[in-house]
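Issue: ligand-bound run for SUD - logging full I/O for the record.

Environment: standard queue, default settings, no custom constraints.

Inputs:
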Amino acid sequence: MSLANELTETAPAKINLALHVRGRMPDAYHRLETIFAFAQEGDRLSVEPDAALSLRIEGPFAAGLDAGPGNLVLRAAEALRQAAGVSAGAALRLAKNLPVAAGIGGGSADAAAALRLLARLWGTEVPLEPIARSLGADVPACLAGHTVRGEGRGDVLTPVDPGRLSGTPLLLVNPGAAMPTGPVFAAWDGMDRGALAQGEPLAAALAGRNDLEEPAIRLCPAIGELLAWLRARPGVLLARMSGSGATCFALFERDEDLARAEAAARRDWPWCLATILA
Ligand SMILES: C[C@@](CO)(OP(=O)(O)O)[C@H](O)COP(=O)(O)OP(=O)(O)OC[C@H]1O[C@@H](n2ccc(N)nc2=O)[C@H](O)[C@@H]1O
Ligand SMILES: Nc1ncnc2c1ncn2[C@@H]1O[C@H](COP(=O)(O)OP(=O)(O)O)[C@@H](O)[C@H]1O
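Outputs:
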């Protein structure tokens, strides 16, 4: 139910159409070349004015996700409050529809949605991008929210024209394993397999790869089985792991192909979402 004073935003699932790991940084991070794209659906974040800052989490993946100060929604809220010198609070409500630690940026998308929503609620025009950067490598891309190329830690962004990608039927499937990002990067073999092509994003993605697939499959063999399953679906244009996994995505030529793959995924895998690319 939507309340009179409530503001709401979707925190769309992020996918990495391709993810090239080019090397290690001097710190704990890796140098990336990636194309971020966004689904039309994701988590939903709502906010109402309140004196105190609070977060309530509901929805299919609420269980096990801490609503305390470590939650990215509250970290984003605190960071914005400090940057903007705001003393007001906010009552935040998160519908957690996306699996957690899944490579589809749920936490990053939630943080970006919190920044956008609270900037509206508190009427501040403080720049959000530096705050996003301080919250995680993926948060600036989620704040942009449209197809964008990422370099550096994934936070040096260049907008790209989505071209024929917008509206493409998209299936997300998770094999039921949580994959923390750090250990997957740590399992990367250190081999630079070359640059991600420039230009039209679907063509660049098709010619590219996800360099984290191999280490993620070593840590979680079910991802390899899921990729083989997705690649065998009729009408599939591209099937790949997103981010550090374990969620994999498939792009389809036609709505009918997506509908058939979704029906099969509901039978064979713990979680899936059929949607389109934004
Ligand atoms: C792999 C990607 C691809 O989009 O997505 P996810 O799988 O997390 O969705 C991202 O690079 C994740 O971004 P994000 O999840 O925001 O990462 P952070 O919280 O900043 O970092 C978590 C950990 O991931 C590793 N990390 C992250 C980014 C990067 N360029 N190099 C890294 O090595 C580091 O070990 C870091 O401590
Ligand atoms: N609102 C949130 N939603 C999801 N995860 C969150 C949130 N706040 C903090 N986290 C933590 O962030 C980590 C990364 O989660 P998430 O963004 O879902 O995955 P990924 O980085 O693989 O895309 C998880 O380990 C989780 O505990």
